[in-house]
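thread: overnight batch results

M.L. [08:02]
morning all. the overnight job finished for the chain we discussed friday. pasting input first so we're all looking at the same thing
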Amino acid sequence: MNTLIISTSSFDIDNNPPLQQLLQKGMRIITNPHRRKLTEDEIIELLKDGSIGLIAGIEPLTERVFQAASRLKVISRCGAGLDSVDLTAAKNRGIAVLNTPEAPAQAVAELTLGYILNLLRQISAIDQAVRKGEWPRTQGRLLAAQTVGIIGLGHIGRRVARLCQAFEATVIAYDPYADQVPDGVTLLPLEQLLTKADIITLHLPYSPSTHHLLNTQALAVMKPEAIIINAARGGLVDESALADALKSGKVSAAALDVFEHEPYQGALLELNNIIVTSHIGSLARESRRLMEIEAAENLLQGLIKTGVIQ
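M.L. [08:03]
and the structure it wrote out:
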């Protein structure tokens, strides 16, 4: 019996028509027993018994993993990013790699807007103060008065631009590969964006070239009271440098949904001018369902194309 692995921390199999088709074709499905991001050793353990297909999360899919998965034919990422997959190694072994770039885009964009509004008006901080018996009359800031700098104008970045424009914010962006630029968005070199933006939000893949894109030097040139948002990938922000900037007040506030090592246990948790969430960007019910169905459909079509199933 052919086996499929679902490595995401959760997945609704029962309400997924493409997966039901695969089950009807005699496929066996094995899910993630740990209910969290898998390590390299853990995904090897799941794949080593001859699985032919994988609906992947963000676990590392390396040459070592592929060596242990000799029958693997198709990887379908449940999400947009492919930075966790060694694409060269997959290609060399004839493994098709697919993703779902459109499905999670709205969910991540709306989460980003939520962070921005929360930090500008200090909603979470005021909520905590009121619960302690205080009654702060905190003066926040209007999104309409801010310049939002978007780094990465892909599926998510373009949506964030439109949402911010709806609030009458000025939107600038950096993306040397942008093929679609929303009306009213001004493209700038990264160095200029960092000096002009009141809010900087990241929406680009992680790669060696983008490692610690926001580092000590980048943080140093930002405007006073800058806000930083990262709902893209851990590793884009130097977390230690960000902690120092938040402590000193160089950066007024931040929101991170992704971290270099998850679950995150670092120094940022000690600060009260940052929102930290548990990699929930795509976890809106409607987007998650769409993403899971698209990932399963990609897997089904990939297995048909490779001739594994009819």
